Structure formats: C-alpha cells, structure tokens
Amino acid sequence: MKCSNFLAAALVAVSSALAQDVSTNSVGTDSVNSSWQPATLSTADARNKLNQAGTCCTALSLVLGGSKVSYAGNAPYSASLASYWTLQESNVHPKCIVSPANAQDVSLALFVLKVGNTVFPGQCNFAIRSGGHTPFAGAANIEAGITIDLSALNQVTVSADRTQVVIGPGNRWAGVYSQLDAKNLATSGGRVASVGVGGLTTGGGISFFSPRYGFVCDNVLNFDVVLASGQLVQANSKSNPDLWKALKGGSNNFGVVTAFTMRAFDQGKFWGGFIGIDISTIEQQFKAFSKILGSPTYDPFAAVIYSLVFDPVSGTWSVAAQLAYTKPQANPPFLQPLTSLPQTFSTMRISNLTDFTVELDASNPIGRRQLFATGTYGNSVDIMRAIWQISNSTVQPLRRIPNFKWSVSYQPEPTVITTKAASTGGNSLGLDASDGNIFNVLLTASWDNASDDAAVNAAAQSLFSQAAAKAQSLGVYNQYLYLNYAAPWQDPISGYGVAAKSSLQAASKKYDPDQTFQKNVPGGFKLFK
Description:
It contains 20 helices and 20 strands. The protein is globular, with a radius of gyration of 23 Å. Helix content is about 35%, strand content about 20%. This is FAD-binding PCMH-type domain-containing protein. Keywords: FAD, Flavoprotein, Oxidoreductase, Signal. GO terms for molecular function: FAD binding; oxidoreductase activity.
C-alpha cells in the first residue's frame, strides 16, 4: 500500500509539472538558477515516499511501469548488456536498467534519481547510454547503479522543407542514414554503422562531411534536454544558447538529450572505400598525407582515415586507408597523392552513406576488450614517422597476447573543419584557425582477456607520452584530445583549453546547480577534475 501511495503521488505531481514544462519547452536564465520542483510534490515529500519504496529501482519501476525497468535475469536486461560494443562495458552490472519510451519518461526518471540520491546517498548513481560504443567500463554503464538506456528514443523525422532532421539518441547512425539515403538526404554523423547518435554528437563528432560542415556537433540546431531537476528544455541559438554551446563537446555533463535537431542537406551516392598501400612506400605515404593535410585549398569533399595496422604474429605492419569523396567522382585529383601509390587491395566504389558505414563497422566487431587512446599534432612528416616508430617499439612486448590487434590511425583536421564552428554558434572544443592544420591520432587495440588490460594500457600510455615529448621537441604538439577517442586515463576536457573548460564549468553550475551530473553520473569525462 505504501508503494502504491508513492506511485500515485509521484505520477500526479510529476505529470502536472511535465504538462507545464513541455508546453513551454524552454527556460530562461532565472528559472535555471533555482531548483525546479514538481508542482505538487515537495522534495521532503518525495524523500518520504522514496523511503517507503525502499530503493531507487523500486521507485522507478512504480513510477514508469514495470516493463520499463529490468533486472538481472530479465531478458531486456541481458539483451541491453549484450549489445554494448566492448566486453568491458557488457561486464558491468547495474542494479537495474531503465528503458524510457519518451522524454517524459526520462524526466520522471531523473526527478526520482535526483531526490533518491539525497535519500540513499551513493545508491542511486546512474549512467546514460545511447549506443554504448565508448570502450571503457563505466562510460555508459554503472556497476550497482541505474543505467538509463535510451534505445527506444529512436525517432528520425525529416522536416517538410528537407533542411532539418530530428534524431533520437537511441539511434545508431546506420539506422539514421538508411532512412535519409532513401530521400537522397544526409546529415553530419558517425562513420561507423553501430555507433550511437548521442555520445558521438555531444563529444564533438567527426564525419565524412566534416570538411564541408565542421564537426558533427556544429550541425546541431537544437537539443531537447532533460535537466537533473527533471525539467525538459530546449537549447539552441535563442533559448539557452550557453547550454547549446556546452553540449557541443561537453558530453554527458549537463543533462540527458532526448532529441537532436540537425541540419540536413541533399546528398546522393559518392565515392569511397578502402585501399591497401604497400608498406615499402611508407615514407612517400607520410609525405602524401602531409600534402593533403597542408593543402592551402583543401578539397571540402575529401575525407581520409589513414591506418597503420600491426600483425603480432609476423611483427610486420600494413597500411589501409579509408577514403571518401562525397561526390560521385572516382579518384579525384586531391586524393591522388595517396591513391597513386602502389596498392595491395581496393574496395573503392560509388555507393551510399549507409554502405560505407557498414563497411567500416565490419572492422570493429562486438564483444572484445577494446582500448581507444588519442593525441593531436601539427602537420609534420617527422611526427608522423616518429609516432609509427614509437608505436612499433611499444607494441612488441604485447605480441604474446592471444588474438591481439593494434592499429594507429591518422585523420586530417584541417582548418576548414575547425573554423566552421564560428559560423554555427560556436562549440566547446577550443579549436580555431590558430591551431593550423592538425591531425588526430587514434590508437585502437583489442584483445580477449582482462588479465592483459594493464599491459595494453601501459603500452598505450607510453606511446602517447613519448609522442607528446617528441611533438613538443618538434614544435607540433597540440593539447586538444578528441573526447570520443580518449582513454579513461586521458583528460579531454582540459585539452579544450582553460577558457573552454571554464565556460563548461559555468554552464554546469547554472543548469545543474546541485551538480548531479558531476557527483551522481561518474561515467565519462567530468568537468572539475
């Protein structure tokens, strides 16, 4: 009876508040600086009701309905864990998994959790999951806490004038693109089919279209966001513009995004795929990459992922370059510094966006232990060569690891990408024209056994520590770290620079005055470390 009373009170109170909030759908400066409370349920009353329920999971089940909260042993719980990309994340076991059906469910859940964390300190911490592609444990899952799985928020709605698309955070990018391909439209999004919309976008995001339109986050026109208080707001150029900017790179530190309104554009089939390049021409390859990156007239239709792949059995390296030219034009002159070199294989073709993301996804199988780590450097053949050489030396002790894989990928981030934000309301990444033409380095490692975690992480840390020292000696070190590629021992938020980090902290204090997303959402990269 006590639980039933709690359910009735909570539903009446929060539904009343939601009716008010959803009708306005935005907040001004004054309202976010004070704690919003449901109209008929005080914090004290909610605290009492939570005590009656006994746990946050029980309360959530009562408020949302039992079908939206699953526990260990339930099929939805097991299916959610099994769908994480890495073993590190699927081996994390929350107390319960909440599966909201809409933004109102998210609002109810956050209100219960916020109050619950005052009633049961440390027992109602939670994680937010979109696609679950971040490799490390706890990024989008939480041991003995509550995981909010946004998979059901998977709408894809194109505006009548075909210039915007509203995308739910539960989508994977292939699902978005398959619908847009059918309309000869696209939006800037991820390049790997199974990557989720939410994490990639709020972490910055790199796209095949980035040279044309900037980072993925630069293409968000509006965020629908549920704040820690449970209030549903909009963040765009006119409503809560500081929150809009903060969410463009600030990750999971401000609220739960329940919809992204993104810029859409006409896009048909284009040229792309993989080529293998003979390792004997490695020096020419570095020069070719540098020439492309440093071009004073960078072709905005060209995108490159240049990967050096280590074979632990033979101890040798091979090269695979993923190329895209977002026009139906084969082998454009701009990419010929790479394509003219002797090739070992090619999948180059004219196809659609979905197809290319599925191809990239094939090299990222689910269910293994994975590590990402990253660095950023100025355009220099010397640093490109040095990173490969350092990588070769640091990986050698890991050859003993069963089923081990290790690759280092270089990706151009020329000024045509980093300066786009200036015309789209800004972002939080801290990059501008003064950084010059830079490139991102992504280390990807995969293996099977947890007993090898420490050795792999130590090798990766050694690689990037040595690379930073070498880059500094060459004058090409850049502090920026792409958040979506960062290892848990890296600090991408600080890499944005002092000014950007301070702005993010100010937005956090304004929109989350009780610091719920800093204290009770431990996963990801926090703002005050």
